[in-house]
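Q: Could you write out the predicted structure for this multi-component system? I'm mainly interested in how the pieces pack against one another.
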Amino acid sequence: MGAADRGDAHNSLGLLDLFGDGFVRAPYSWLESLRSEAPVRYDPNTGLWLVSRYHDVRRVLLDSALFRPDNAQHAVTPLAVAALRVLARAGFTLPPALANNGSASHPGLRRVVTRFFNVRRVAAAVPAIERIAEELLGTAQKQIKTTGSCELFTSFAQILPCRVLMELLGIEGIAPITLISWSDASLELFWGRPTPERQVELASHVAEFHQWLTATVRSSTSPPDSFIAALTRHRLPDGKLLDVETAVAACFFVFIAGQSTTGQLIATVLQRALAEPGLWPRSAHEAGLAEAWVEEVLRREPPVTTWRRVTAQPVELGEVELPAGAELLLMLMGSGSDPDVFAAPELMCPHRANIRHHLAFGAGRHRCPGASLARTEAAVALRVAARHLPDLQLTESPKTPMLGLLSFRAPLSVAVEQPR
Ligand code: HEM
């Protein structure tokens, strides 16, 4: 484990830049300074109040009347007029549907999602997850045989969740790579710090995604047992059928949340497992180890690092008086390393007693309905990869490219080699 991982450097919070390389590559010492020095702190760069202690984060998540979810999908970097024009021309709107919906329509819409991702459905999907994982790893294996090395993020971690989601939701007629590029563009546009020129580029992908979703929702060609067909049959609390815009907004969020985040989790799980002495070969066969490793990665280094809420009225939080309308950034990742809850948080302990107490999937009414799927996919990915490629090792690299958005963080490359 490197110095950055131990978090033994001391940082001046005045220099904190949530998008900067220093924070993205070595977040722990910053998160520790926030927790101990300023657990509820205004960040002038983003206009958000950073909430860092586990118990404060949990309190906010559990009280969705006082801490509303309305700002969950706002663009953190204000969009330039040119990018807004691209979106407007495509008829892009994101009415409250799931993560950003604090209204009476939320529970019903959420039930449509949970029906597709409940524990029973996920358990039934394990053979499909294994089959897709084996197929993708077969290709990686061939490449390693020929060249001695391979990159497991783009060839495996990123594609597996997309293909699984397509099977589970009955999505047809689109290439996985297209869905992945649309989803990644959406994350960067709404959670990144793109320049105005880059915003236009991203907005055109997001517009294309939105138009494809709208056309798919409007056409009646989706299989009757598919997610889209279930949404179009859904009735709101007033008895009216769900409108197309909200159905599209629900799909937009599920298609992004359902694959990008899980791909990011798998990348970190593989990278950390390969870096931990002896873990890789053991996770191939030791019962429960892959699952426990995934849980520790979710606690210490989750892909969804933060989540937003907004105060409905003035409130005291962590001894700070917040006005109504204060936008909060819940530091989910930092909360998993809070020593008040997790002993020796810097250590990866697959057998720690409170292993599932982390907040990586949120909590309360909006808690991630895809948690079971994400956990299962990541554990299967680790186990199958360790079985297929037992002698793998990480390729030494001075600087792994990282995704570092406001709420999403992961290695963008897992370069591996087979010792000859
Ligand atoms: C490692 C992967 C994942 C992580 C870390 C993650 C994390 C999260 C978090 C932090 C939230 C917000 C929770 C809150 O506000 O309390 C959320 C919401 C959500 N996630 Fe996930 N997620 C992951 C995978 C998935 C998957 C696979 C799906 C779908 C299949 C999914 C669908 C959703 C949906 C629909 C919501 C909004 C729920 C609501 O507002 O009721 N997520 N997720």
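A: Regarding packing and overall arrangement: Residues 3-417 form a domain with the Cytochrome p450 fold (CATH 1.10.630.10).
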